Amino acid sequence: MSEATMTGRRRFLTFAAGAAAWGIGSAQAQTAEEIIAAADRVRNPGEPFRSTTTLIEYRSGKARSKTVLTVYVKEDKATGQFRNVVRYVDPPRDAGKLVLRTGNTMWFYDPGSKASVRVSAQQRLLGQAAIGDVIAVNLAKDYSGKLVGEGEIQDAERKPRLCWHLDLTAANDGATYSRIEYWVEKETSYPIRGRYYADSGRLLKVAYYGKYQSQLGGMRPTETVIIDSVDSALVTTVGFADFRLQEIPETWFQREFLPRIGAE
To answer: Which of 8, 208, 250, 256 is 20 to 30 A from 136, comparing alpha carbons?
Structure first.
């Protein structure tokens, strides 16, 4: 084989190897939408389920108040959004109250008055936690995302995590926040941290997602720690437990049916 032929072959092999490497890299590249959707699948299973949510408000490390909820979740296969029914369990004065989220609309039902009124997902629930912080949401449907970059951050336990950094802006009226900065671990697609902003652009809170456990067929965060943006001594923890798959009737997602859910 001539030297010219060998040189040409080496160039071809170098080009082919480079093309193969480029192809692999392209296949592994992820868009912002794909990263957000993968994190959504970590946070919530695709099947109807229920869980117990416990909120505890702290000031300077001391517990001040507590609320316990049962949350029922079912995905609307037509839209990809999650529908939620939230039942208040504790404290006793609130037991039996309900919140319904269907589509971009949210209703609050009080069995005492037997009336349901429309509320915002930003309605404060306890401490730094809003109603929108405890229901199942599909961020990929409610927000438009932009990939800002990647880097190492600390999680709630101060462990380093290599994350995608994303900037999310509300895409519909059902989005709880106007803007979210979102960090998703590259290796696992685990949500690690979120920074939540008001319509004015003011930072409201910082949230850390942690205590990942195997639940309903996947590793899921079982605690969110929410820290006030102004006073870091104000902290609210949101714990998720008692996950169970459960069939949920379609009637539960109708406003007119709320009194009957509350009576069960």
So the answer is: 256
Predicted TM-score (pTM) of this structure: 0.86
Tens of pLDDT along 203-257?
999 999 999 999 999 999 999 999 999 999 999 999 999 999 999 999 999 999 9
CATH second-level architecture of 33-263? Answer: Clam (2.50)
Domain positions in the chain are: 3-29, 33-263
Instruction: Give yes or no for a contact between 253 and 260, defined as CB atoms under 8 angstroms apart.
Output: no
For the segment 188-193, the average pLDDT, to the nearest whole number, is 98
